[in-house]
Amino acid sequence: MVLLAAALFQLLPPRAMAEEKAAAEAPWEKFGVNLGLFASATSSGFRIGSGVGVSVDVEEALGLDSSTLAFRADALWRFTQNRRHRLDFTWFSIHRDGHKQIGQDITIEDSNGEEVTIPAGTTVEGHFDLDIYELAYSYSFFQDERVDLAASLGLYVMPMDFGLSATGLVNESGSQDFTAPLPVVGLRMDFALTPQWFIRSGTQVFYAEYESFKGGVLNFHAAVEYNPWSHVGLGLGFDTLNIHLEADGEDYPAVDLRGEVDFNYTGVQLYARVFF
Hints:
The protein is mainly beta.
């Protein structure tokens, strides 16, 4: 067995041996999972229908909470021997409900496609639910024992559900339910301060206009991580996301939106991480 192992070792290409040794000695984990709580301040606007309806600030007009606390999960996998190729996955969910006597007229599109005005003074119940899934691939074009700098290509998939119902002066309701798949490009940088302390950062952007569709995404995130144990650590992160979508049907693939949505959040995440 010893002779066989020695023979196989001799057959390994020198470059492959060097890359394997460098990857083993580098601080960049092959696999990691982050689980924690994400506290965010949100600002949202929505318009139902493609007419001249008013874009509703859902926190101000409908009494939805402007701050949320959600469970969040992130995972990464460096799937090649040199650890330059990486996949990332993120998921979290924000669900909000509220009710309020509105102070302005709101125009919506009902189930028949007719525009209906809900007058000021009407009691309105509303909800705005959003799930965010992201899958991203990145390639580290510069990587050593201190810095990992990569370019990324990702896809956000965001099921959104917004609706409101009015009772009192009028009895009307309207809703918009759709899924927005939005590609993004970005840059990512991880920096190893010490074997235990790391700084993670990255930014992603997307913008497109096609017929009646207009959409944009801007995301920035940064985190500080401390790994006091061999395979377990803690992290504190900052994340901001801005989304703007306008559409009048299905001009953009898989986005069946008639209206407009703006969603912005800024938040912090406290998480535990397991890595190998």
